[in-house]
Amino acid sequence: MPIDPYIVLLLATVGLAALLPARGTASDVASGASTAAIAFLFFLYGARLSTREALDGLRHWRLHVTVLACTFILFPGFGLATRALVPVLLTQPLYQGLLFLTLVPSTIQSSIAFTSIARGNVPAAICAGSFSSLIGIVVTPLLAAGLLGNSGGGFSADSLIKIVLQLLVPFLAGQVLRRWIGGFVARHKKVLGLVDRGSILLVVYTAFSEGMTRGIWHQVSPARLGALLAVEAVLLTVMLLLTWYGARALGFGRNDRIAIQFAGSKKSLASGLPMASVLFGAQASLAVLPLMLFHQMQLMVCAVIAKRRARDPQEAQDAPGASAEHAVQGQPQDRVLR
Prior knowledge:
Layout: H1 5-19, H2 25-48, H3 51-59, H4 61-81, H5 92-101, H6 109-117, H7 122-148, H8 157-187, H9 189-214, H10 222-249, H11 254-264, H12 269-280, H13 284-287, H14 289-310, H15 315-318, H16 324-337
């Protein structure tokens, strides 16, 4: 099988962060560039999607409930089950970090980017990821307080403001300006594709650099690290299978299943890091190690899946359980993505 150039870029980005992590001013620049790229990504999505298509995504409540159930019910259930692996495979701190990663909300930018690459339901992915992040601001600290025995977390107005400013405001700005710039954006679809992939590369570099500068990779033995990676690989595989085949069993069409798989199988490092600093205090560095590893793993695996989905357009007509409602929703979206 030929090597996907984008996977090579992802691996090269991880290698660059390991050899030359962003520090000091460079770290601030990388973080700012990542934030700007994500905001620009949402601005372009707002400019590309018509208001009717955005409302279609918002009304797709069954999809959103499915994603939220995967994120805040199935994931935590599997996280609790890994308690049986202590102390044979995992230490107690690693287990707490693994459980914490199952409690954080889904990603937004990478879920949308991969859904777009795979030609899935982008409007629904935008809404599903945004709902997950907004709800996670309250639900994640409450779940962590109950399951981890730490009541230090709580609602963060700053986190809510950051989500609104970085995601919602650019998207609404794109919607407002779509009348004037929508045609230009549609004629330059390759630019949007570059932003999709470039934003993910920036997130990977920024996140991995932070892990390197914090030195968290030296706080666990190679054997424990290998066991943690194996457990997380199993967890990711199970969730990818459940979101894909479970969504088909629930009657969702191909485009919706793509959105559910990418939004329902991922965990947000951007949301998890600030939450962990509040919940774990001085132990936050080790606590977020499982989340950081899982984040890199999910990006690389989902990049491969997204590219394969994009090369299989015939499945759009052959997907079982696709209802007339889903077909209607898919039509305008397909016109936008082509």
